[in-house]
Amino acid sequence: MPLVTPLDPSHDNETEELAKFFNETLGFCPNSVLTMQHRPAISKAFINLNKAVMANEGRVTSALKRMIAWVSSNATGCRYCQAHAIRAAERYGAEQEQLDNIWEYRTHPSFSEAERAALDFSLLASQVPNAVDEEIKKRLYTYWNEGEIVEMLGVISLFGYLNRWNDSMGTTIEEGAVESGNQYLGKHGWEKGKHI
Question: Transmembrane segments in this chain: where (predicted)?
Fold first, then answer.
């Protein structure tokens, strides 16, 4: 049972309008946003931040951003966000081989060295204490420019917020996210956990 009950999608008209963004991303408005509506300023600010972070202004694709989100969520253990991130990666055109082998991104041939650097950056930046160091900086600068690195860290930071929010809230996970979690992550033990 969630810590706070999500409100109806129509509770706040501005949030409802902004939340249409998630129909493309996930196919539904996430319960996390419906919980944030208890303070509409938070739900609106979050959606606008999400839209800004996920905008593509360089070579970091929408699919890679969602895989960065998955690695970050996996590092923190948020099962809700793991399922949402892998679902969004699928919806934004991640290669089937990458979706099926996301756990093995460091060694699987479907991932490029540039993608591995981005995903390792996500892992290192999501750890507590933070593990970003000169080695990952060098690897990032081999493949990515500063604006693209900012985009990546935007995703990692956004999901740091979401991981804390959803694990603390015990946000009820939506059926579509459960399907994606089971399909792509289930073979490695993914389950809903507290997000029932």
Answer: none
